[in-house]
């Protein structure tokens, strides 16, 4: 009996000890708060908690974020995609101390194809100031003035290569000499410049949509536009100047046909409209003796958010389709001078090596300006050639054209005659 009483007392003692040490009467660890976060989890003092209302969207959409952070500190939300894209920045800015130009090409293949920092709503004024600077806005200054420097983490970790480039070396196809790696701080600054080259506008990188309450809870709206890359997107929040970071959450952006993701351009687009545009452009392009690339190129850059270098490279092989069919049909009606064509082709072969290299040395604005001037000059020249005075002075040209058209009609009639006899 005494043994039973002793065992019962020991069991009750152990149960009481467990109850007080780990149960309802247990003391809270130092530094822990009893307040629950948005998802009901206990939030540690000084920590940041976030939750998303959905884990997937279809070709862009809205995701609502809720979270909690230490009271009284600003919160920033960093959003980026797993998919990456190439970006480059050619530094030709003159050094004010030495008067020399660096001619250094900074390049990476791992810049997030989508990137945005959501900042507090009271930073709207700082964002408007950056937008007012136009093309001269600084990504670093915009991040600093919006207080978002600490939230700039994902692009700051990307590897960046730099090359010392000469114009002559670029023309012959050389990228230049690879320079030693930079310090992490300089890498961070160059990443900001690459980000500007990729997204162009400060409001494409920063969005003042984070609303914070006095108790530290906050909400934000993540707007992923149509045409964004598909796949996985990451989200994390950063609170205060000390950079207290939340866990990284993720969601999926699903893309379905006719939308297709373009890896090189870092965007997705509906293929139907480029197909229709190319059909119309090719019809008129071949009529003028070209593949239509000189028309299609600026239209693609103006209508869709595609880099000029990617458009130029993409249009080149696609012109082969229109050129091949055009060559076949023009040869049938004997409208081709092969001697002249071979001479011109050799010159174009040389230019084909130089052009792609030069695209890395000019900005999108410079490309549009030069291309626009060329098109204006060509349009003016062709319009002048249709004036009555020009036509009157070039009767021989009109006679040759009439002769070629006559031969074309005769060749078409000759081909149609055997078909009628067979029928």
Quick overview:
The chain has 423 residues and is of the alpha+beta class. It contains 12 helices and 18 strands.
Please, could you describe this protein's structure?
The chain is an alpha+beta fold and 423 residues long. It has helices at residues 2-22, 124-132, 139-145, 167-171, 184-199, 272-287, 293-303, 308-332, 338-358, 364-384, 388-393, 395-422, and strands spanning 32-36, 42-44, 49-52, 56-58, 61-68, 75-81, 84-91, 104-112, 115-120, 161-164, 177-178, 206-212, 217-224, 231-239, 244-245, 249-254, 259-262, 267-270. The strands form 4 sheets. Strands 3, 4, 5, 6, 9, 12, 13, 14, 15 and 16 form a 10-stranded mixed beta sheet that branches. Strands 7-8-10-11 form a 4-stranded antiparallel beta sheet, with helices on one face. A hairpin with a 4-residue loop joins strand 12 (206-212) and strand 13 (217-224). Helix 6 (272-287) runs antiparallel to helix 7 and helix 7 runs antiparallel to helix 8. The longest helix is centred in the C-terminal third of the chain and has 28 residues, at 395-422. It starts with a helix and ends with a helix. Residues 1-12 and 14-45 have low confidence and may be disordered.
Number of helices: 12
Mean pLDDT: 79
- The best one-word shape is elongated
Number of strands: 18
| CATH homologous superfamily caption of the largest domain | Macroglobulin (MG2) domain
Could you give a short account of the major beta sheet? 10 strands, mixed
- Helix/strand order: HEEEEEEEEEHHEHEHEEEEEEEHHHHHHH
Briefly note the structural class of the backbone. Answer: alpha+beta
DSSP strand content:
15-25%
Distance between the termini: 120 Å
CATH top level assignment of the largest domain = Mainly Beta
How many separate domains? 2
CATH topology of the largest domain: Immunoglobulin-like
The gyration radius over C-alpha positions equals 32 Å
Overall CATH architecture of the largest domain: Sandwich
| Percent in helix | 40-55%
In the predicted model, the low-confidence regions spanning at least 5 consecutive residues are 1-12, 14-45
